[in-house]
Specification:
Elements lengths: L2 E6 L7 H9 L4 E4 L8 E5 L2 E5 L12 E4 L4 E2 L1 H13 L9 E4 L3 E2 L2 H14 L11 H9 L12 H21 L7 H15 L3 E2 L1 H10 L4 E4 L23 H8 L6 E9 L2 E3 L11 H8 L18 E3 L1 E2 H11 L3 E5 L9 E10 L2 E3 L6 H6 L1 E8 L16 H14 L3 E5 L7 E3 L1
Parallel strand pairs: 1-10, 1-11, 2-5, 2-10, 5-7, 6-8, 7-9, 11-15, 14-16, 15-19
Antiparallel strand pairs: 3-4, 12-13, 16-17, 16-18, 19-20
Helix pairs in contact: 3-4, 3-5, 5-6
Bound molecules: inosinic acid (IMP).
Length: 428
């Protein structure tokens, strides 16, 4: 089993962190291939809640080497802070355990300022980004004027390139009505962080390929979700990368024949942060029940931004599409425990778009905004699932819900989660 790709099938926040943590236990390398610190992967291990933004969840497994691949955009200051927090919690973070691609792109203070300015300029049409500078960093990458992580190997050259980049960005910032930056003052922390990250730099594509050749097992830990994919998501309310199985290969630099397992993670209901269509969105009491109060770390509030997430019934029209886009070989359904106590549960299995019944999501936002979900109602269950560890111990209604989702997605569900702790998984 050389490589496994783990992807989110909704709008992110599917619980990929805890699934990655489980799969990391049987992996030698865990790699991030896209996105940056817009991600927030929560892992609850040894009574500590780890909120990882850039570091792969594999860091919590001693034998695993973590890779930040060429497809990621990285904020050196925030990455260093995350590394220090891990070290403070007893996790070993050394160049033997963490490698950063020289081809990854750097998120700069100018990218963060540009993200803010462009969101402000969009007014009511704002995307609701995480304001981490993700979009502007990828724009500079595709515009062929970005700063690659490899530059950090030469701190002086890195500092010069950063100053020039900030000066150039100031012109755009001024034109967009944003606040311009003092190149030197805003770059200081970045230059310091770059010097400290230098020992971690490597050609990670060569590294991953060499591990695969010697029988190493690689887990690609996806970030965000397929509905946020720049091509397959509901553009323009998407992120600026490809958090899909295809993106994992480009973002890490190895070939498709190495992959024999694509695990898609979906939450047992729908959530979304930021703007954009969400056909099964609920308001009022039902939404509040799904969201939780925010007292627990697993409630539906953004790990990165703290924003309350929009909540709704499970949408298998989208899931049917996203399982195909990724070629999922199996699914994991998370947060099933949250559905305990509902009288009845609804699952969207088709949409009505302008009087026409469709099985797959329309490709324009305008049509998706008009899509009326067609629901099947299933009986709920009252039992607390948190202590269940075996398929046979799940209530009949829970098993029926899982089986129906698998049928609608045309993909087997092999694992469900019934709580935030490592062991709260049921394997089918
Ligand atoms: P950006 O990635 O910060 O540019 O944000 C673009 C869109 O993706 C916004 O709707 C964000 O809320 C959403 N987004 C980005 N990263 C995540 C994530 O890790 N989880 C959930 N939503 C995300």
């Amino acid at each position: 089993m050389p490589a496994t790709i783990l992807v989110g099938l909704q709008w992110g926040d599917e619980g990929k962190g805890r699934v990655a943590d489980w799969l990391a236990a049987e992996s030698d390398v865990v790699a991030r291939s896209s996105g940056g610190d817009n991600a927030g992967h929560t892992v609850y291990a040894n009574d500590i809640v780890f909120k990882l933004h850039q570091m792969p969840s594999g860091i919590l497994h001693q034998r695993v080497t973590c890779v930040l691949g060429n497809g990621v955009v990285l904020n050196p200051v925030n990455l260093l802070r995350e590394m220090e927090e891990l070290i403070a919690n007893g996790v070993e973070v050394t160049p033997e355990r963490v490698v950063i691609s020289t081809r990854a792109h750097i998120i700069t203070p100018a990218h963060i300022a540009l993200d803010k300015a462009s969101e402000q300029a969009r007014g009511g049409g704002a995307i609701g980004t995480t304001l981490r500078g993700i979009g502007p960093a990828y724009m500079d990458k595709t515009g062929r004027r970005g700063l690659r992580a490899g530059l950090m190997a030469d701190p002086e050259a890195f500092a010069d390139a950063l100053y020039q980049h900030i000066e150039a960005a100031n012109v755009t910032l001024a034109a967009e009505g944003g606040e311009t930056l003092d190149p030197h003052a805003s770059a200081t922390a970045y230059v310091d962080a770059a010097a400290r990250l230098k020992p971690f730099l490597k050609d990670t594509s060569l590294y991953i390929n060499s591990r695969l050749k010697t029988g190493g097992r690689v887990l690609c830990e996806g970030a965000q979700g397929t509905m946020l994919d720049i091509d397959h998501g509901d553009y323009p309310f998407v992120t600026s990368s490809s958090p899909t199985a295809g993106g994992a290969l480009t973002g890490l630099g190895f070939g498709p024949l190495q992959v024999d397992r694509v695990v898609g993670v979906a939450k047992a209901f729908s959530t979304r942060v930021g703007s954009g269509p969400m056909p099964t969105e609920l308001e009022g009491e039902l939404a509040a029940r799904l969201r939780g109060t925010g007292e627990n770390f697993w409630d539906e509030f953004g790990t990165t931004t703290g924003r309350p997430r929009r909540c709704g019934w499970l949408d298998t029209v989208l899931l049917r599409y996203t399982t195909q886009v990724n070629g999922c070989t199996e699914l994991v359904l998370t947060k099933l425990d949250v559905l305990s106590g509902f009288e009845a549960l609804k699952i969207a299995y088709a949409f009505d778009v302008d009087g026409e019944r469709v099985e797959f999501p329309p490709t324009t936002v305008a049509e998706l905004e008009r899509a009326q979900p067609i629901y099947q109602t299933l009986p709920g269950w009252q039992e607390d699932l948190s202590a269940v560890r075996r398929w046979g111990d799940l209530p009949d209604a829970t098993r029926a819900y899982i089986e129906r989702v698998a049928e609608l997605c045309q993909t087997p569900i092999r694992t469900v989660s019934v709580g935030p702790e490592r062991e709260q998984l049921v394997h089918l």
